[in-house]
User: Fold this.
Amino acid sequence: MKTISTQPASLMLALLLSLLTGCGGGAGSDPVVHKSHSEHDFAADPSLRLEASEVGVTFLEPKDAVPATSGDTGLLGTDEYPLRIAEQTTFTYTMDTSDDTIAMVRMIRLTGNVEVFVIDAAQPRTTVTLEPGDYKLVVYSGYTVAEASGEANRAVFLESNPSAPIPTQAAMNASVPRKRVLAADKPTQVLLSSKRCIECDLSGANLTRANLSGANLSFSNLKGADLSFSNLKGANLSGAYLKDADMNNSNLSTATLTNAVLSGANLVGAFLIEIDLQGLNMVGANLMFARLARTNLTGANLTGAYLNYTYLAGLNLKDANLTNALLISADLTSAKLTGANLSGANLKNATLTGADLTGATLSGANWIDGVLCAANSIGICN
Assistant:
């Protein structure tokens, strides 16, 4: 049996329950049955579309098989899944290159007959965002009659949980071999299972308390994502877009954040130990009570950032932009603030013992004693 998935995470569960009728959630519970469609249903009713909550199965023949007289979809050696996407959704499609059942998969949007993607052995994975509309997923056979060992076809399921068990032949009511070829999932599920999701759209994703240590999330869109209490130690977040992401109490120690965007991010209580934040956009970020040690903030844009009560002792903030930043009761002992812009910053009750303010702009800053620094105050509050 072969499997393909283009649906949300619950689809494989739906698949199992629709085929294994009578398998409920526990003792005394009623069986849960989800609507499903087979290739024969699609062939009999060309207007039929597979919805996100439904399950589909086709029976893929060898690429050199004798043409079927009925019940087949697509051309010889291909099968088709007619799909209907009700709302914009992002999926990741992955092809198992160790299996010869499927040679290639194409996604086509019916409006305009536009090809959305192609995956094959050379490029077995792709992530796409599908807009609402009707599509067809065309599966091309990769095996011959000679390689079929007498099998008339092989079942190809649409499913989204590649780690779930495959239904039995008896439940399928078809004597076809059982193998897994292709799986597709939302990027969140791909990330959690593989700790790798490059250039993924994870905006608004719920990743709270996720173990993503060492994960590769480079160039991914994590705008507004919930990463609170998550473990991102040593993760690759290069080029990641983390605007307004909630990372309170997360562990980002030793993570790579080169060219990442952290504007508006919630980093309250986060561990930011031994990371390079040089030159990053952290406008309006909240770092109150964050744990920073051996952290490089050279040239970081911290305009309007919340740094009240934050321990910044000994850190390099050279040329950092701290305009209108809140640094009330912050510990800046021995911090390097040469050339930093602290215009309008609130430093009331902050500790600046041993801090280097050479060339720092302090115009309009609220000084540690509550006095407002005069305009053109450089290096010292006048």
Q: What stands out?
A: Residues 1-34, 160-184 have pLDDT under 50 and may be disordered. The helical segments are 11-19, 39-44, 169-172, 187-194. Residues 2-185 form one domain. The radius of gyration is 28 Å.
